[in-house]
Amino acid sequence: MAPVAGESKSQRAYRWIKDRIADRTFGPGYRLVLGQIAKELDVSVVPVREAIRLLEAEGLVTFERNVGAQVVMVDETAYEHTMQTLALVEGFATSLSAPKLSAEDIERARAVNEQMRLSLEKFEPHRFTELNQEFHSVLFEPCPNPHVLDLVHRGWHRLASLRDSTFSFVPGRAHESVKEHEQLLVLIEQNADPLELELAARRHRTATLDAYLDRRAAPPAEAP
After folding, report:
1. Number of other CB atoms surrounding residue 104 within 10 Å
2. Whether residue 5 has pLDDT greater than 70
3. Residue 55, CA atoms < 13 Å, CB-side half-sphere
4. pLDDT tens digits for 66-82?
């Protein structure tokens, strides 16, 4: 990135990051790794840190202790409404799909969940979200009601446009999510009552939303 005459290193870093937020190269939830940005701009970490503080003051970036800086959610109200709706339709789709799931389907879902569990050691929110969608797809794709399935697909697509990964905001939620996945699989294997399974799938979805809302309501962490 070519410097502008009279522009300080922190201003250049600020402009570079802000441009990438604007064109969605750095999407909602994207983690801003100071060392990587400094290397890209051939500067020290200090001006990058100053740029992050400016972007945080503008509401474009948040800072979470033990997580770091990341791009904010685009439209939090839309995210909340989408998650609430998806909890309903995906929970219902999962209950309708359950009788159609084979032992091979369950084995595949469990294998994906194991990948998610192993990924917790070196947590990468975007990859975790990809695996999460793969897991749930196994459970809801056999849904025999095409209208319900269409609503589920629309919900997932809407989420993708609103954030890169909710788990980047609430990484601790990932551990519980893996445990809840196994609980869902056990319910399916036990031929649980459809309503019990639907409610369990719904709670699983809303728990992620609740974790995010609780995190947003918490006092802000100290800046980097």
Report:
1. 9
2. no
3. 29
4. 778 888 776 778 889 99
Contact between residue 204 and residue 184 where contact means Cβ atoms under 8 Å apart: yes
Of the ranges 8-17, 24-33, 37-46, 92-101, which one carries the lowest mean pLDDT score?
24-33
Q: Mean pLDDT of all residues in the chain?
A: 88
Whole-angstrom distance between the N-terminal and C-terminal Cα of the chain? 24
